[in-house]
Sequence to fold (221 residues):
Amino acid sequence: MSSKYLNNSRAPQVPARPRGRPRDPERMARVIEAAEAQFSEHGYEGASIDAIAVSSGVSKVTIYSYFPTKADLFRHAITHRVESQFAEVHWARLDPARPREALSQIGRAFLGLMRSADVIKKQRTLYGTQGLDSAAAESYFAAGPQKLVDAVAGYLASAHKAGDLQVNDAALAANQFLSMFLGLGQIRAQLGLSLPSKRQDDELLKANVELFIRGTARKLK
Fold:
């Protein structure tokens, strides 16, 4: 299922192909899922297209015909991972008149994504290779952080239009909202220390949503 904010489908996106032989969606799903596992296990630099070909049962030549570069395949794998995490957030059904409920759903899914072992590992790998492979970093940024900020901004703009929130810059507000979840708990996770407990994350979620709502609530004249 697609939405006006973020594609909610659990199936990996199939890259557009303007001409030539149609791509097999099931085959593309196998490639992207195998790539996601390979990148998660070995990081970007250590991931092997040969291994992805073996795991997916799709030839290396075919993979490169679909994804010209490793960075392109990485971007689609990240997109699939984000959409899978947010599959239960039905963006098109988020009520602009009920921002507290909507932001709680978004925040919960975002915390789940950022606390997951595979995402933490990908971030460590990319931060460790900063400056060595800008294509991989750009792919991660566009398919992960930027896409999420854009999706949240889309919802906030609709809430502003509905009159429940005062959000003059939806992109800035979306960035601020998601950034509220990247404090000490996430720093500990990146350092390989203990993750926050479910209770701690529940408290963080509630506090962040309430703070954001209070800061953006439309003031009565």
Observations:
- Residues 40 and 118 are 5 Å apart (CA to CA).
- Confidence is low (pLDDT under 50) at residues 8-14.
